[in-house]
Write a structure and sequence with these properties.
The complex is a heterotrimer. By secondary structure, chain A is α+β, with helices and mostly antiparallel strands. Chain A is 31% helix and 30% strand. Chain A has a single domain, classed as Alpha-Beta Plaits, CATH 3.30.70.1060. Chain A has helices at 11-18, 22-41, 92-103; strands spanning 2-9, 45-50, 58-62, 68-71, 80-88, 117-123. In chain A, the strands form 2 sheets. A 4-stranded antiparallel sheet of chain A has the order 2-5-1-6. The two termini of chain A are 17 Å apart. Chain B has 3 helices and 6 strands; from the N terminus they run E-H-H-E-E-E-E-H-E. Chain B has helices at residues 11-18, 22-41, 92-105; strands spanning 2-10, 45-51, 58-64, 67-72, 79-88, 111-115. A 4-stranded antiparallel sheet of chain B has the order 2-5-1-6. Chain B has a two-stranded antiparallel sheet with strand order 3-4. Chain B is flat. Chain C is mostly helical. Chain C has a domain at 322-415: Serine Threonine Protein Phosphatase 5, Tetratricopeptide repeat. Chain C is 69% helix and 0% strand. Chain C is built from 20 helices and no strands. The two termini of chain C are 41 Å apart. Mean pLDDT of chain C is 89; it is low at 1-6. Classes of the chains: A alpha+beta, B alpha+beta, C mainly alpha. Chains in contact: A-B, A-C, B-C. Strand 6 of chain A pairs antiparallel with strand 2 of chain B.
């Protein structure tokens, strides 16, 4: 079963991340690399993506004449997707265990902040957006 | 360049969607399917995924005694990611155009467009 | 997915033969698009059968025969829908013997393919995809993997590109001599783009992607063999070699990005550098000073410096000044500013950057922030440097670049 593990953050979280020390950054990068490798080695890895910073995010709606209307205004409280992993596992419990490991990524000050990881099943089978 | 197009909704929104007449839901699916086909044909399609409903979601924050600490989500009004498309296009404008089309097909709900980070580096 | 393109012993042979076979079949059937599909299938058949049956005595002939059989099978099933008389006539016409086909082959066929696949009317991504398949002999899966898109998507891209070529009615012929000079830049540009894509993704071993940089070098060598007196082709090859030579030094043990001035130069490939300089010298001797000559010359000056501090920056500055005239653009201006700063001091560089503040073309303007930050740091304005490093980090979508820029900011912030 496929699950998506998502890291979200408010704009202020991204800004905080930008100010981490070199050591904290290096520790986090190393952790993420090891984590992805473990996912691959254990055969559960499907995909992973990091997303661009929220300052570059746009909201798009269809306009009157078919031209899209874009704006970059989001409320301060908005949670932006920072990145995700998609894994293919035997059970939701396995997905939560993996998420718990991701959650322990070292953060500011070198400590794990038990970063919240949202876990959701991915709709499988066809490629349509099946709500 | 790869862009991710995010479709989000609220619990109320999703429930309202479920109350749509069957043929409207099917018509909506058909339009989205058509969009995916067009994107594949144009060579822009990379991926699309739908995510299960919010009530299937959990938030995990570390573990206690070896057991993951999980929590359900969320306040009623909070927005959830319902699904996404990833497209490979020459510029942002094209990504916005595709997002606009998805939006138009989906009661004009706003689609968030973000560029994907890469592991490439164009420096020397 | 093999790391090295030539892991399978006959893979090298197959790739070399691919454009020759395609040329022969396209010429015989006067249908480039269908021929390209047929040759793809012949390649896949070879990959499947040769490991078991061994490489045939006449590998090229084998491929031509399999491709031709596919072509006639294809035509038969189409013809089955039409009149019988027409069917007989067309079949007879097209059942050519292998000897005839091979006799018709032209050493220029690969060049014809290059001009065709790199036509300036095609979008860059279309041209790149088709060139890699038709001339490079890569499979659709390999190309898809190299660009991180699904195979179906890549297959479609190539299919549409061929439809466009078919619709344009381009014959399977070299462009007339007076057009050739004008068409060559498009070919070189596509090869350059393939190299850039490959080199940009050579950071770390994060993703096992097809080595496009090496493929670009191979294709450019082939082009140089076909156009041995052309200085631009030689210069492009030199540029690729001189850049590729640094590949091993770009990535640190933690897969972090290492900038040029901090690279361990003992890891640079001296063989590639030597060849690059030889090619460049020969190209410059021909008298023309074009875009690739200048870029290669700049790369050569860097590569010739034993240590970063030995770099002949005045020489580089002079070359960027020439480049600004030959091929002006925001990236050149940025690099020129860096060189100017190395020669005349950071204030001079910062002054030059101001010209870019209002340039709408600077789409990836995080680069402007990054360079500005670097120069501000050199002037001692750490606070402003940190600000611009962070702006640049927020603006880039390259993870290795983002980490690098954040690390610089953190370093200055005393963290």
């Amino acid at each position: 079963m496929k699950y998506i593990l998502m890291m979200n953050g408010k704009r202020s979280d991204f800004e905080g991340y930008a100010k981490w020390s070199k050591e904290d950054l290096r520790a986090n990068v190393a952790f993420m690399r090891t984590f992805s490798k473990e996912l691959k080695d254990s055969g559960v890895f499907v995909s992973t993506e990091g997303l661009g910073w929220p300052s570059e995010a746009k909201l798009v709606r269809a306009g009157q004449n078919g031209e899209p209307i874009t704006d970059g205004v989001f409320p301060e409280s908005k949670e932006f997707l920072a990145g995700y992993w998609i894994i293919d596992v035997e059970s939701p419990e396995q997905a939560y265990r993996i998420a718990a490991r991701a959650s322990k990524a070292p953060g500011a000050g070198g400590k794990s902040a038990n970063m919240p990881i949202e876990v959701r099943p991915v709709l499988s089978g066809h490629t349509d957006l099946g709500l | 360049m790869k862009y991710i197009l995010l479709m989000s909704g609220t619990r109320a929104g999703v429930e309202a969607y479920h109350a749509w007449p069957k043929q409207d839901i099917e018509a909506h699916m058909a339009v989205l399917h058509r969009i995916n086909q067009d994107l594949t044909e144009s060579g822009e399609f990379v991926a699309t995924q739908g995510l299960a409903e919010p009530k299937e979601a959990k938030v995990v924050r570390g573990e206690k005694n070896g057991v993951p600490v999980t929590d359900g989500i969320f306040p009623e009004s909070k927005e959830f990611l319902l699904g996404y498309w990833i497209v490979d296009v020459p510029n942002a404008e094209r990504a916005y155009a595709i997002a606009g089309r998805i939006s138009a097909a989906s009661v004009n709900m706003p689609i968030e467009v973000r560029q994907l980070a890469t592991h490439e580096a164009k420096s020397r | 997915m093999a790391d090295h393109p030539y892991d399978v012993p006959f893979e090298h042979l197959l790739r070399e033969l691919a454009p020759q076979v395609l040329g022969a079949v396209a010429r015989r059937f006067r249908d480039f698009s269908s021929a390209e599909d047929a040759v793809q299938e012949a390649m896949i058949a070879a990959f499947t059968q040769w490991p078991q049956e061994g490489v045939p005595e006449n590998p090229r002939g084998w491929l031509i025969q399999v491709a031709c059989r596919r072509m006639t099978d294809q035509m038969r099933s189409e013809i089955a829908r039409r009149e019988r008389e027409t069917a007989v006539a067309t079949e007879a016409e097209n059942m050519a013997s292998l000897l005839e086909i091979e006799a018709d082959m032209d050493p220029d066929d690969t060049l014809i393919l290059l001009f065709m696949c790199c036509h300036p009317a095609l979008t860059p991504s279309s041209a790149i995809a088709l060139t890699l398949r038709a001339v490079g002999g890569l499979t659709t899966a390999e190309i898809a993997n190299a660009f991180l898109v699904p195979e179906a998507t890549m297959a479609q891209r190539i299919s549409r590109t061929k439809q466009n070529i078919k619709a344009s009615g381009a014959p399977f012929r070299l462009p007339p001599p007076h057009e050739r000079v004008g068409r060559l830049p498009a070919v070189l540009h596509v090869l350059y783009l393939i190299f850039s894509e490959g080199y940009a993704s050579s950071i770390g071993s994060h993703l096992q992607r097809f080595d496009l940089a090496r493929e670009a070098i191979r294709l450019t060598r082939t082009t140089k063999t076909l156009l041995p007196d052309n200085a631009e082709v030689a210069a492009l090859l030199a540029l690729m070699l001189l850049t590729d030579a640094r590949r091993a030094a770009r990535t640190g043990p933690d897969e972090e990005l290492i900038p040029l001035d901090k690279q361990d130069r003992s890891l640079w490939d001296r063989v590639e550098i030597t060849e690059g300089i030889e090619l460049l010298t020969a190209a410059l001797a021909k008298g023309s000073v074009g875009l690739y000559q200048l870029q290669a010359a700049i790369a050569a000056v860097h590569d010739e410096a034993e240590r970063a501090e030995d770099t002949d920056w005045p020489q580089i500055l002079a070359l960027y000044e020439l480049l600004k005239r030959v091929s002006p653009g925001p990236m050149v201006t940025l690099n020129h500013a860096i060189a100017a700063a190395m020669v005349h001091g950071p204030a001079e560089g910062l002054q030059l950057l101001r010209a870019l503040d209002t340039d709408p073309r600077l789409a990836s303007h995080y680069r402007l922030d990054a360079v500005r930050a670097h120069l501000l740091e050199q002037t001692g304005d750490n606070e402003a440097a940190i600000k611009h490093y962070r702006l640049a980090a927020a603006g880039t979508t390259s993870i290795p670049e983002r980490i690098y820029l954040m690390t610089q900011a953190a370093r200055l912030a005393g963290n």
